[in-house]
Amino acid sequence: MINQTVSHYKILEKLGEGGMGVVYKADDLKLKRTVALKFLPHHLTANSTEQARFLQEAQAASGLNHPHVCTIYDIAEEGGQQFIVMEYVDGETLRQRIASLASQGNPPMDLKDAVNYAVQIGEALQEAHGKGIVHRDIKSDNIMVNSRNQVKVMDFGLAKLKGSMKLTRTSSTIGTLGYMAPEQIRGGEVDVRSDIFSFGIVLYEMLTGRLPFRGEHEAAMMYAILNEEPEPMEKYRPEISPELSRIVNRAIEKDPEDRYQSAADIVSEFRRFQKQSGRVLRPPSTPVSTAEIIKEGSAPHVQAGDTSAPRVQAREMAPKRTRLIISGSVIGLLALGAVVYFMFIPKAKPEKTRIDSIAVLPFTNVGADPNTEYLSDGISENIINALSRLQKVRVIPRSTVFHYKGKEADPQKVGSELNVRAVLTGRVVQRGENLNIQAELVDIQSQSQLWGEQYNRKIADLLSLQDEISRDIAAKLQLQLSGEEEKKLTRRPTENPEAYQLYLKGRFYWGKRSAGDIQKGIEFFQQAIDKDPTYALAYAGLADCYAVLPQYSGLPSKEIIPRAREAALKALKIDSALADAHNTLAFVHEELDWDFPAAEAEYKRAIELNPDYPTAHHWYSIMLAALGRHNEAIREAERAYQLDPLSLIINNLRGVTYFWSGDYDRAEELQRKTLELDSTIWVGHVTMGNIYLAKHMVPEALLEFEKAVRISGRRIEPLAALGYGYAVDGQKGKALDIIKELRQLDTQGFDPAFLIAAVYLGLGQKDESFAWLEKSYQAHSWWILLLTVDHRFDTIRGDPRFSSLVKRIGLTR
After folding, report:
1. d(C-alpha 106, C-alpha 8), whole Å
2. Buried b (16+ CB within 10 A) or exposed e, 576-600
3. CA–CA separation, 203 vs 94, rounded Å?
4. Pairing between strand 448-458 and 434-443?
5. CA–CA separation, 461 vs 433, rounded Å?
6. For the chain, which end, N or C, has fewer CB atoms within 10 Å of the first or last residue's CB respectively?
7. pTM score, two decimals?
8. In 3D, which of 456, 455, 460, 458 has the Cα closest to residue 472?
9. Is residue 663 predicted with pLDDT exceeding 90?
10. Which residue from 87, 75, 68, 81 is spatially nearest to 1, judged by alpha carbons?
11. CA 578 – CA 444 distance, rounded (Å)
12. Which of 28, 113, 137, 790 is catalytic?
């Protein structure tokens, strides 16, 4: 479009492009001024929602008349293209300015400039909020600094006007993730305090050159914003005063009630701060040398831009022409007094800081022998379990830390991502019957090693060795253990070393989550029980395997799940405090007995015994959704996510629970994040396809289902989803081919009846669908528990046969 004339504007150059528009510099041929033109992107011009959002931006900003808000002159249309005419700002964004300073090796930004910009940004927000406008996307990219060092707040494309229609994006989060307030991430209501949080992020960025909440991917970033505290700004910039830190920290409080309640409040704080001379910088941590301060009785020369604390102090003294005349005898007396003081006054011993949180990373299997991989995993898991029994320390669960398995994880980075004070790493080397284990405990806050040790033992001594490691770690964490806690820490589930090794192998294969590996897990758990019939954890592991086997193998639940019940009850008879055994028993009550009150009681007991057990919250969430208790289901899914933000299956669960509740936009938003974490998770593509179908986006749904079928190797769930999609799209022949394939699996002992019923319903064959639903009911298929939330059955919800089936299952409240 360069050199083209649109209406009476001649396009000069392209300034930038974003998701909501393309911006050009242009000449206004009528009024003879330079302007900026923002065009709605071509791919969005046919989208009525995006056009409405584009118009809303113009309406929002045009109602503001303020020196620190980019002025909107007009909105026009030419050749079917809408564009906004706005003030041209000759300058750079705050992000560009911060990056430019960093590239030159300078501090992020002069402190006085940063405070000056803060006042201007705050005044712009005060103006917007006073007109009932919440910006919702405050970030350093949306704030310009012109050639006169004036701030201009821009881009009201996501602004929320009081009384305006609700415009939500279906493909992305409202706002920019690194700057979003916790309530925005949770999908809650936003108000002026959400803008204040984002403003606080910008303040932190201006002052330190970095964002306060960081992560390698979106899930880690969201976890940080929701759960972690930012590093003190003084860590990166020692001259920042406590008062300035207090203002910024209050702006980024996680609870909106704890933040500034209006932009006027924070502007007032910054203005007061500006007036207090000398408060921008902290006093220097070390005294300025006599030679530096006193040179011929005058203050030293200070170069412009020098912000080191001693030199700034000297620079502020210089205009006053203060001459410091201190005799050598006085200096000598002061020095002598200092020597006497430090010789005879005993130094206070620094108080030891107790470590209150730890992540135990998967120990590295040196040599990568697949036959000994179970050992490194098992040792890590055993230490996690031992430390989790203590009340005084928060231990990150296995399901979270094992996402770092096989990666060169930097402990400092991991500690920051998981918001823990300490990280334990280790290496395991096995040579025949000999074991060498090296362990290192790192203090994230002080960036120093707390402890490191090597252990050489026989593999037969593995149980006592792990007890020793756990005790050593507890001592280094500064935990004062009671006698009971000492017993808990070293409590052994078995005294048989062979049984223990077999148990570790069982857990190793159970964690791989494929039909063949789960079968191997069953074999190893059974061998462990044969070695020690009183081994409660081995029974619990066996119960877990049988509980998930139908889902991963397609084998009938009615035949497999009773074995899970038997194993879980044996585990609880030996040890009634095993949270995972209670959780598995809850699953059995739900899936096999359809006894939902009993299942709920067991889920609650599991959570009571171990509130930080993600799987309990995960499975409980699914049952709550099946019973129509969607708010509770979402709450449990969010709790599972908080405990294990890197779990793909739990990330998928969040999208599913919102989808089942009917919030398709939020479901799509979360599901995109799941697939960004790992695009090879087939269940994520099935969920996304179902969301698209519910939104009548059939071609997009078919693409997702086809991906899922390909990735999964034609598993029955994605195969049936694709068959239903074909049916809805009118491709009857392809749908019938998939039914034929599924019916062939039915004759081979698999359990696809519920899924076949869904495809028949997509073809409009209700009687066939009810016949297969009845078959699913008789087989006690675990799929049928999703009957009330599966959108594919929406067309028959008014049929008496559907109501009867729901009642017989017990899904009515």
Report:
1. 44
2. eebbbbbbbbbbbbbbbebebeebb
3. 10
4. antiparallel
5. 10
6. C
7. 0.54
8. 455
9. yes
10. 81
11. 32
12. 137
Residues 739-754 pLDDT 10s = 999 988 766 656 789 9
Locate the DSSP E strands across 124-229.
Answer: 133-134, 143-146, 151-153, 160-161
Which residues is 357 bridged to in the sheet?
394
Q: CA-based Rg of the chain, rounded to a whole angstrom?
A: 32
SS3 call for 638: helix
Q: Is the pLDDT of residue 277 over 50?
A: no
- In eight-state DSSP terms, residue 322 is -
Residue 283 has a CB neighbour count (10 Å cut-off) of 11
Do the beta carbons of residue 424 and residue 445 sit within 8 Å? no
Residue carrying the six token digits 């303040």: 203
Rounded to an integer, the average pLDDT of 160-185 is 59
**What distance in Å separates the CA atoms of residue 213 and residue 221, rounded to the nearest whole number?**
6
Asked if residues 54 and 76 have their Cβ atoms less than 8 Å apart, the reply is no
**Burial of 729 by CB count in 10 Å (0-12 exposed, 13-18 middle, 19+ buried)?**
middle
Rounded to 5 degrees, what are φ and ψ at 93?
-75, 160
Q: Are 105 and 59 in contact (CB under 8 A)?
A: no
Q: What are 378's two structure tokens?
A: 């098992």
Q: What is the pLDDT of residue 42?
A: 56
The answer to whether the beta carbons of residues 416 and 212 sit under 8 Å apart is no
Measured over the CA atoms of residue 742, residue 748, residue 750 and residue 754, the dihedral's sign is positive
Comparing CA positions, the residue from 341, 181, 337, 330 lying closest to residue 253 is 181
Q: In order of start, what are the domains of the chain with their CATH numbers?
A: 5-87 (3.30.200.20), 91-275 (1.10.510.10), 357-492 (3.40.50.10070)
Specify the residue for token string 């609880």. Answer: 572
pLDDT in tens, 84-112: 888 888 888 898 888 888 777 666 788 88
**Mean pLDDT confidence for 611-640:** 93
**Angle, CA of 498, 563 and 375, to the nearest 5°:** 25
pLDDT at 315: 38
**38 φ, ψ to 5°?**
-115, 120
Planar angle of CA 193, 196, 202, nearest 5 degrees: 155
Contact residues for 297 (Cβ-Cβ < 8 A; gap 6+): 323, 324, 325
Distance CA(28)–CA(32), nearest Å, equals 5
Structure-token pair, residue 500: 């223990």
SS3 453: strand
d(CA 698, CA 691): 10
Environment class of 281 (CB within 10 Å of its CB; exposed 0-12, middle 13-18, buried 19+): buried
Task: Report the C-alpha gap between 691 and 681 in whole angstroms.
Answer: 16
137 among known catalytic residues: yes
Query: Count of residues for the chain?
Result: 813
Q: What is the per-residue pLDDT for 52?
A: 59
Cα 620 from chain centroid (whole Å): 21
Q: How far apart are CA 200 and CA 213, in angstroms?
A: 12
Residue 368 has pLDDT above 90, yes or no: no
Lowest pLDDT segment from 326-335, 374-383, 441-450, 688-697: 326-335
Ramachandran quadrant class, 255 (left: phi over 0; alpha: psi -120 to 50; beta: rest) = beta
Q: What percent of the chain has pLDDT over 90?
A: 35
CA 645 to chain centre: 5
